[in-house]
Amino acid sequence: MAVGARDYYDVLGVSRDASEEEIRGAYRRLARRNHPDVNKEPGAEDRFKEISEAYEVLRDQEKRAQYDRYGENWRAASQSGAGRGPAPGGFEGYGGGGGFDDVQVEFGDSGDLGDIFEGLFGGRGRGGRRRGGAGGGFDGFSMRGGDREAVLEIGLEEAAEGGRRHISLDGEDYEVTIPRGVTDGQRIRLAGAGEAGIGGGPSGDLFLRIRIRPHSRFRVEGRDLHVDLRVAPWEAALGASVEVETLGGSAQVRVPEGSSCGRKLRLRGQGMPGPGDAAGDLYAHVKIVVPKKLRREERELFEQLADVSRFNPRKAK
Hints:
Blueprint: H1 8-12, H2 20-34, H3 44-58, H4 61-70, H5 74-77, E1 90-92, E2 104-106, H6 113-121, E3 129-130, E4 138-139, E5 148-154, H7 156-161, E6 163-169, E7 172-178, E8 187-190, E9 206-212, E10 219-221, E11 224-231, H8 233-238, E12 240-246, E13 249-255, E14 264-267, E15 282-288, H9 296-308
Parallel strand pairs: 5-9, 11-15
Antiparallel strand pairs: 1-2, 3-4, 6-7, 8-9, 10-11, 12-13, 14-15
Helix pairs in contact: 2-3
């Protein structure tokens, strides 16, 4: 191998049966962290060269097949060392004097330098000029790092109460403050936790999109909550004060006389908390439940009701 003698798959941290997408994703993550304009640690440039060489081979089906068959002797087995010249979307070497031997670094499909770095780092800036000489780099080039987005799944109670959450993303740890009453689909911004900037440019941001897991009892619509309220036939017919479960405990609700299945009873302010006093509401949906087995006295009473009642639910409005 031109740069070191490590296995190319180990360099990128992928398995030997990794897909092209997995190889590309691994390369982009590692290249961002080890690019000489971003990482000033000793050895970062060598790691960047090693990563770029591994990607140059494994991204190409023919070169990858040769490498899988012959290992580090794949170049000698290939036809007359083909593939060393620059190709569209890449450039050979990194500056002069300290360039990459036999490494073609591909950043994108465009030959414009701003677009090349935009493709790798997700930046928004453009321009700058390449600087020759060992060490590489670009004079006058400054670019903001790209933003990242990820999904953060939380429970309904955690969404209502808010608090601190520790998460790991791409090998990095973050402490996230979840606002009280956060809603499904809302984004939380972690300033500066995106991709690193180039040439002294600021880092991008990390956006966490909230996804609230389905709850065993409550259904969520914005800041409003919906829950089934199970009542007995006589409670629905005669009216009753019954207990309904809320997110924070329970409350009493009045079931009006003559309530049918599906009737909604509104409890103001018992939904998801919001900014200030802008809390949502809780809607209790009446669900009439009958006994699966009747005691003798219950059966007799239901039979008496059936004899005297003139109610026909199929004709009721």
